[in-house]
Amino acid sequence: MNARFRLRSLLLRRPGWQLAGLGLMMLSLIAGVGLLALSGWFITASALAGLGLIAALDIFTPGAGIRLAAITRTLSRYGERLVTHEATFRLLEDLRAEVLARLLKHDEMFLKSLRRGDTLSRLTADVDILDHLYLGVTGPTLAAMALSLLAVILLGLIDPWLALLTAGLLLIVNPLTVGTTRRLGRTPSQALTQALPDLRSLSAAGLEGLNELRALDRTASYSDRVHEQSTRVVGLTRRLGSLDALGQALVLLTGLIALWLALVLGLMIFAENQISAPVLGLVVLAVLGLNEAWLPLPMAWRKLSQCQSAVERINTLSEDPAALPQPERPEPWPEQASIRIDAVTFRYQPHQSAVLEDFELEIKAGQTMVVTGPSGCGKSSLALLIMRQVDPQQGRVLIGESDVGHLDPDDLRQRIGYLPQNPVLFRDTLAANLRLADPEADEHRLTKVLERVGLGDFLANLPEGLDTWLEESGANVSGGQRRRIALARLMLTDPDIVILDEPFESLDDDSTRMVANALDEWLANRTALIISHATEVLPNHDRVVSLTVGPSGT
Amino acid sequence: MSQRAWLDSQAPSWLRPASLALAVAEAVVIIAQAGLIAWCLHSAIVLSKPLDALWGLLWGLLAVLVLRAGLNGLRGLVSAHASAGVRQHLRRQLFDHLCQVGAERLRPLGTGELVTQLNDHVEALDAYYARFKPQMASALIIPAGIVVAVAFQNWLAGLLLALTAPLIPLFMALVGMGAEQLSRNQHQALARLAGVFHDRLHGLDTIRRFGAETREQSRIAEFSRSFRQRTMAVLRLAFLSSAVLEFFAAVAIAMLAIYIGLGLLGYIEFGPVATLSLGSGLFILLLAPEFFAPLRTLAQHWHDRAGALAAAASIQPLLELPPARRLPTRPVELETDRPLNVRTNALTFAWPGRSAVLHGLELDIKSGEHVLITGASGCGKSTLISLLAGFMSPDQGEIRFGSMDQADLDAPALARLRTWLGQTPVLFPGTIADNIALGRDRTSRSDIERVANLCRVSEFANRLPGGLDTSVGQDGFGFSGGQAQRIALARTLLEPRPLLLLDEPTSGLDADSEEWIWKAIRQAAERSPMTVIAVSHSPLARQWADRILHMQAGRLMEAEA
Predict the structure, then answer these.
(1) Do residue B198 and residue A120 have CB atoms under 8 angstroms apart?
(2) What class does CATH assign to A339-546?
(3) Which residues pair with A470 in a beta bridge?
(4) What stretch of H or E contains A510?
(5) Domain A3-318 top-level CATH class
(6) Reported ipTM
(7) Do B219 and A376 touch (CB under 8 A)?
(8) Are B187 and B271 in a shared domain?
(9) What is the pLDDT of residues B157-216, one digit of tens each?
(10) Which of A123, A256, A378, B475 could potentially form a cystine with B65 if both were Cys, beta carbons 3.0 to 4.6 Å apart?
């Protein structure tokens, strides 16, 4: 199932579009060479005819050919760019869907760990970088190879030696140059993938801790440290830039040498009367035109290592991580969804102190319990333990009579409704965000549920109503509105157990009361755990447990 | 200064003349190449010279060709060198400037954004100096040189190319507009799409929780599709501009070929056809594609320019931010390193665009006193600490340490006089010990160990495999807030100073860490006497303080201890 992405397999997608793009790329290259070659032939022939050295010349066919080549060149270039871009966009489209599908197979702790640092932004960028693969590398390379091969065959019809030397220079020396540039670029490229993030984190720490540095007058020495790392990064990019320049110069030199040899060889066989003068003109100008296709390739291939590391990073992320052990034969979901936490000790990291130590808690089926306490006392860990996002180091967590470790993970996900402390809303319409929970819900139901959490007025004031687009993680709605939208979304589901992490944070008193009332109704007959640091307004509840910070120091 | 002018002012002064000189050399070589090839063919075909008579020309041509490739490579190396210098210099200048602007004024800009500007945006300038600028020189010089050379041979052909010359600025504008719009639109579409995708990745657990895996996958596909359709609609137009350039290039070659051919055949009478020969005809034909090549390359690099302009637009304003503290014109020497009394006189400070948070604040703290300042959040307590620490200059009023005016002290003097501990500890890349020493030279290992014991850093560090030499943030050794703050405290107390300023040192910490931090501060003050001014909400701080001041409406009042 977990077939790794391969650069090669990526390139076999959307073959129709890719082939069409390739065809147009070749056509435009051929038209370019053809235009020059034909012009060379025509001028030479005209000069000879003008001097009376050859018989009358048909000027209409070559004239029409030249005009055709010029028009074909323009049109195929335009078409090529459209088609290759279309192909690339389609490729990226597939890739995004596949990355998403692969990542969705992971457990939630892993998904959460993705949010740390810049992993997600990098993953997003990694997918986008792959557009270079087809647009910059495979398409142009295949086109250059095919054009050169075609040229070699056609030159072979004129003279085998001419074909041999062109083949040697264009199809052997050029690929060697391109390959060498790529190989030489690999080390600095790899070093750069390490050095640039290091520079980022170094400068980030410096800017975050600016007052620390200023207080001790260490800004100058820290700036030296940043500068040193910057020098490393810039040095690497400079090496890559120089490599590109040399690669391009070498390909140019190869093409020019091919031109020179074609000229010398052409003159020789012309002297032996094996070819006519117009053909000599054609050969020289055709070989001159061939170079265009090869010039961008050294840099394009050098950049390929970026694509490769992008693919590698995507692969590492979509491999199976060390997940919590899953039950082989899961127990059925208990009829009575009570919760018992039995002598649990839990710490996030082995070297950190325990968040919960020998902790006991019981919630009977259908009851609502409120857990309060200062931050850092282990409230949120409780939620993670019940949902089995983490396993305790000691003790058991039971739902009904079953250890959560023996229950089906799908059951755990679907039967437990969870409002996290920072709920995620997507860049999408309000309706689409709500329908995440229930795709069948009609507008009436969506409006209803928003009204229940006190967002009736908010909705009424939106010009586009349910079709309003929510920006970046809900940036165009306030924190309180965002939590309530997430709560409304949760209330569209029908779970047995509900865990609400700080449902009233950043709500004003009126909204808090309204939400509390709505929850009273919805939570009836469900087992609920409400985590809250405030206790002033709460929905109906059976018990309040106050967690204190243990002597272990958490 | 416009962004373009600013970008150009960053380049080393030799880059422009060097690019122009290289472009001139390239133009000469290109013209020589065309001339030699044309002359060889003319000699062999029209003058029927034997091959042996041509070797001189052919070797000359080979030398010219090698020179051309060499010049091309040299240009790349020179511009890579120039670009490296610009980026290195600019990054250092920017970082140093941000240090001067100070944490308080940078915070609203967001560290993440600043880090992107400092690193990625500065790197984005590479293509501008390494590719766009040199190509700009080539696009100016080479076509001009070619027109002159062609006109010498045949004024009509020269005129034909020259006629396109006034069109070149038009081309460039067209290409520029098209390419700029293209890259802007493509950028925007990609950024939006990346945003939507990033969002889904961010909420993968939410998607799973609602069992919406397939639905969201098709939703992403739907977005990709509609973005693709919209982008392609723009691209269809944008690509037209480069198609225009392509069209002119192809048509000019075709027209010249046909004109020369018909002229040689004698079908055309007007103009300087009489002087046309195979040699001059081929010369002109060989130069025609070279005339357009630099322009086409320039068009390809146009998005580098757009990228650099965008980066410049984000970097330039940062360099114009004012520094937070005015440097003393005549710094004074420190008079003492014993605890000092701290007084302020009519201290007034307002954040830009807001009403004054401190007005006429008077503070009088005796040397060696431990004073706690309390007050509602946002009342200006932290601002006061930052002003006392010399992180910012007050709008009005003065701060006196003993008999010295704080404004007369330079950064090294301030650092010997006061030290500071803030609310969120920042650990720098390096080991725990590095973080405590923070690059100060005269620190012995035993000093570090002593202060690590005092601040109870050793307690958790000893449990780590590397002890105090464990790297921060690597191998999964993330530290809890309390642990990080203990390291930060050890850093602050490593070298005792006469004045210690504390800005909410225990907020958000567990009770255990909180207790230990206040204890360590008391112990440090017992060992080496110091004036301590703290801002805190902690009940433990009330027990610790000699005197408590309450801040309200920008003023201080004595409160019950």
Answers:
(1) yes
(2) alpha beta
(3) A428
(4) helix A509-523
(5) mainly alpha
(6) 0.87
(7) no
(8) yes
(9) 998 888 876 666 676 676 566 666 666 666 666 667 777 787 788 788 888 888 888 888
(10) A256
